[in-house]
Amino acid sequence: MIADQKVVSLNFTVKDGQGQVVDSSEGGSPLVYLHGQKNIMPGLEAALTGKAPGDEFAVTIEPAEGYGEYNEDSLQVVPRAAFQGVEKIELGMMFTAQTPNGPVQLVVAKIEDDNITVDPNHPLAGKTLNFTGSVIDVRDATEEELAHGHVHGEGGHHH
Ligand code: ZN
Questions:
Q1: Out of 39, 111, 132, 147, which could bridge 33 as a Cys pair, Cβ 3.0 to 4.6 Å?
Q2: In this predicted model, what pLDDT tens digit does every residue of 53-66 receive, in sequence order?
Q3: In angstroms, what is the span from residue 35 Cα to ligand 1's centroid?
């Protein structure tokens, strides 16, 4: 049964409020994570607690429980000169900016002459996410995995 300190493998599909698939393990590898360590969204983690291999799940995660509300105030206008080494700046381009709080992923949201508006919101911010899927496997975490706070081996960290 899924509980803290268990390693969980699952298949999942995530759709937004409009029914568009935004992420899925289908055609790829299952998601493997260490339960109880905030490695996945808190709302999803809570809904999976107590499930067993073979169990299916369907969970709706509101923005506050997922990637947060979309914050329009966090948009920033930066001069084109800040994009040194980028030949052509286009809408939707993603950049990683170094900030005092660590690296932040930015998307180009608007281009007006030399003023580039960048959006630091997560692409899924403000979206209600509907997760469906099934639990494939649940096992005990190793001492080492617990010490590191993440999964090793298949689907996990290799180091
Ligand atoms: Zn590790």
A1: 39
A2: 999 999 999 998 88
A3: 15
